[in-house]
Specification:
- The protein is of the alpha/beta class.
- It folds into four domains: about 1-110 and about 245-310, FAD/NAD(P)-binding domain; about 125-240, FAD/NAD(P)-binding domain (3-Layer(bba) Sandwich), CATH 3.50.50; about 335-445, FAD/NAD(P)-binding domain, CATH 3.50.50.60; about 450-555, Oxidized Rhodanese, domain 1.
- The protein is built from 17 helices and 34 strands.
- A five-stranded parallel sheet has the order 5-2-1-9-22. Strands 11-18-12-13-14 form a five-stranded parallel sheet, with helices on one face.
- The chain is globular.
C-alpha cells in the first residue's frame, strides 16, 4: 500500500501518523508545498508578540524527526499541481521541474489560503498575512526593525490575536472590521465586551467599515477606509478570511461546493481512493445542518485520524462528527469562547429558540479573586434542546463552554444542565456552577416560571410596557431607562398598588443589574396577577447590547 498525503500540518500529518501506527508495512509519502510540514500555526501571533521567543518552538516536527519516529517519507517544497484519478497519480512541482508520483490511496489536505480582496495597493510589500512561520518571522522582523504603526484588516480570531500582539510590542495599532462588530460569530452583546477590552489595550477599533485602498509611501503606507479615514501603517495585516485551496483538485474532478471539497462520512471524495480532510472540506453544522468549511485545527486533526482509519480499518472506522465550531480566543485579560450556533445561523435555519443571559461568578464569591463570567445560552423552543453558547470573562469562560460543547454533542436539553455533576471547590467554582444555573433558568423559561424580554426589543418594550427597575436608588441614579419606575426589589410586595397604578393596565417589564433581583420581583408580580417579564441579563446585558449608544439612551 502506498499512501500519498498532500499537505502537512494538522489534517495531513494526523492522517499520515495514524496510518503508520495502523500499518508498519505501508509506504507513506507526505508532500508539503512549504518549508515546514508540522508547525504550530495557532502560535504565530504569540511569536510576533514576543510571548513565544524561539522560532524553533513553533516547529512541532521536521522531516528528519518524522522519518526517525514514524518512518514517513516527508518531502517539503513539493507543490502538487495536478491529479490524474484514472491513472492514480499526482504531478508535483519541485524546484521548477515536475515529477509524477503514483498512489494506492490519496489524502488531500491542502488547507486554505488567505483571501486577498481586490483593493488598490493590496500588493504593497507592507501588506502581510499571518498564516505560516515565514509570515510570523517577517512580521516580527518588521517590528524589530522599528515599525511603530500597524493596521489590521479583519477582526476575526487571527486579526484580534495579531492586533493584540502588535499592541503588546508597542505599535500604535488600529483594528478594522467590516462587520458591525469584532469577532462576527459572537452575539452583539458579547462582542461589545471584546471591543471594550481591545480599546483598554490601546487598540483603535473601527467597526462597520472596510478598507478601500492601500496607498504606498516611502516612509509608510496609508490605509484608506471607506469613510475617508486615512491610517498610517508600517505594517498592514490582512486577515479578512480564508478560502479553500482546492483549484487543482476541483479541476481534476473532485466535487466541490463553493470551492470546498465534498466528502462522505468517512472523508471519501467522489473520486476512487481519494480522501480529503481539513480546512478545504465541506462540513455539516451539527446544530443547523448548514454546509461550510470549518477552518479549525482540532476538527482537522481528528478528521486526519478518522480518514486513516477509513483507509486501513474500513470495517471499524468511525464516521466524521458534524462540526460545532467550538473556539476560544484571548483578548488582554479576557477570554471569549463559543460553541454551536449563534442567532444569525439559527435564524437562517428557521429554528425557533430562546436565549438566556447570565452573569455568574467564575468561582465562589467569598473566595478571593472571583470575577464575572458573561454567559449566553441558546436552546430550542418547545423541547429545550441545547443549540449554542458563548462566554466572555477574565477566568473560567472556556471551561464552561467546553462543558456546554460536550452537552450539545451529547444531545442534552437545557434542563439537563441542572443535573451535571461538576467539580466544585471554592477556588474553582460554586456549588451551583454557572452551567447548572443556566439549566435552572432554562427549565424555568420552558415551564413558564420565567418570562423574558430582551435588550434587542427595547424600543417596543418602552412604548408598550411599564419598565420597573428594581435596583437600589443609587444604582437607578447612575443610569436608567427614561420613563421607568424605580422600586427596590425588597419593596415590591409593599408597593404593589403603586406599581399597578403606574402600569395602567400595561404589562410590566422588570429589570435589575444582572437578572437576579428582577427574577425575584418577576415571581412576586406574576403571582399577584401582573403580566410580568424580566430583562434577560439585566442592565449589564442592556449596556453591552447598546454599546456606544448606551450614553444616549440611558438618563
Amino acid at each position: 500500500m502506498r499512501l500519498v498525503v498532500v499537505g502537512g500540518v494538522a489534517g495531513g500529518m494526523s492522517a499520515a501518523a495514524r496510518a503508520r501506527r495502523l500499518d508498519e508495512s505501508a509506504e507513506i509519502i507526505v508532500l508539503e508545498r512549504g518549508p515546514y510540514v508540522s508547525f504550530a500555526n495557532c502560535g504565530l501571533p504569540y511569536f510576533v508578540g514576543g510571548e513565544i521567543t524561539d522560532e524553533s518552538a513553533l516547529l512541532i516536527q521536521t522531516p528528519a524527526s518524522l522519518a526517525a519516529q514514524l518512518n514517513l517519507d516527508v518531502r517539503v517544497r513539493h507543490d502538487v499541481v495536478g491529479l490524474d484519478a484514472a491513472a492514480k497519480t499526482v504531478t508535483v512541482s519541485v524546484g521548477g521541474e515536475t515529477q509524477t508520483i503514483s498512489y494506492d490511496a490519496l489524502v488531500l489536505s491542502p488547507g486554505a489560503a488567505a483571501i486577498r480582496p481586490p483593493l488598490p495597493g493590496i500588493d504593497s510589500p507592507r501588506v502581510q498575512t499571518l498564516r505560516t512561520v515565514g509570515d510570523a518571522v517577517a512580521m516580527r522582523e518588521a517590528v524589530l526593525d522599528g515599525a511603530t504603526t500597524a493596521v489590521v484588516l479583519g477582526a476575526g480570531f487571527i486579526g484580534i490575536e495579531a492586533a493584540e500582539a502588535l499592541a503588546l510590542r508597542g505599535l500604535a495599532t488600529t483594528l478594522v472590521e467590516l462587520a458591525p462588530h469584532v469577532l462576527p460569530p459572537l452575539e452583539t452583546e458579547m462582542a461589545s465586551m471584546v471591543s471594550d477590552e481591545l480599546r483598554r489595550l490601546g487598540i483603535d477599533v473601527r467597526e462597520g467599515v472596510g478598507a478601500s485602498e492601500v496607498v504606498s509611501g516611502d516612509a509608510h503606507d496609508t490605509v484608506v477606509l471607506a469613510d475617508g479615514t486615512r491610517l498610517a501603517a508600517d505594517i498592514v495585516v490582512l486577515s479578512v478570511g480564508v478560502r479553500p485551496d482546492t483549484k487543482v483538485f476541483e479541476a481534476a474532478g473532485v466535487t466541490c461546493e463553493r470551492g470546498a471539497m465534498v466528502t462522505d462520512a468517512h472523508g471519501r471524495t467522489n473520486l476512487p481512493d481519494v480522501y480529503a480532510v481539513g480546512d478545504a472540506v465541506v462540513s455539516t453544522d451539527a446544530v443547523t445542518g448548514a454546509r461550510r468549511p470549518v477552518a479549525l485545527a482540532g476538527p482537522a486533526n481528528r478528521a486526519g485520524r478518522l480518514v486513516a482509519d477509513a483507509i486501513f480499518r474500513p470495517v471499524s472506522a468511525r464516521p466524521m462528527p458534524t462540526a460545532m465550531g467550538t473556539a476560544v480566543v484571548r483578548i488582554g485579560d479576557l477570554t471569549a469562547a463559543m460553541t454551536g450556533a449563534n442567532r444569525a445561523s439559527l435564524d437562517a435555519a428557521g429554528i425557533e429558540y430562546h436565549t438566556l443571559h447570565l452573569h455568574p461568578n467564575n468561582h465562589a464569591g467569598y473566595f478571593p479573586g472571583a470575577s464575572t463570567i458573561d454567559l449566553l445560552v441558546h436552546f430550542r423552543a418547545g423541547d429545550g434542546l441545547l443549540l449554542g453558547a458563548q462566554a466572555v470573562g477574565p477566568d473560567g469562560a472556556e471551561k464552561r463552554i467546553d462543558v456546554l460543547a460536550t452537552a450539545i454533542r451529547g444531545g442534552l436539553g437545557v434542563a439537563d444542565l441542572m443535573d451535571l455533576d461538576l467539580a466544585y471547590a471554592p477556588p474553582y467554582g460554586s456549588a451551583k456552577d454557572p452551567v447548572n444555573m443556566a439549566g435552572m433558568a432554562g427549565e424555568n423559561l420552558l415551564n413558564g416560571t420565567l418570562k423574558l424580554w430582551y435588550a434587542d426589543d427595547l424600543e417596543a418594550v418602552m412604548a408598550e410596557r411599564l419598565v420597573l427597575d428594581v435596583r437600589s436608588p443609587a444604582e437607578f441614579a447612575s443610569g436608567h431607562l427614561p420613563g421607568s419606575l424605580q422600586v427596590a426589589h425588597t419593596e415590591v410586595r409593599d408597593r404593589l398598588e403603586d406599581i399597578r397604578a403606574a402600569a395602567v393596565g400595561r404589562p410590566v417589564a422588570v429589570m435589575c443589574a444582572a437578572g437576579v433581583r428582577s427574577y425575584l420581583a418577576h415571581r412576586i408580580l406574576t403571582q399577584e396577577g401582573f403580566d410580568s417579564s424580566m430583562l434577560s441579563g439585566g442592565m449589564r446585558t442592556l449596556k453591552a447590547t447598546l454599546g456606544t449608544r448606551a450614553s444616549a439612551v440611558l438618563v
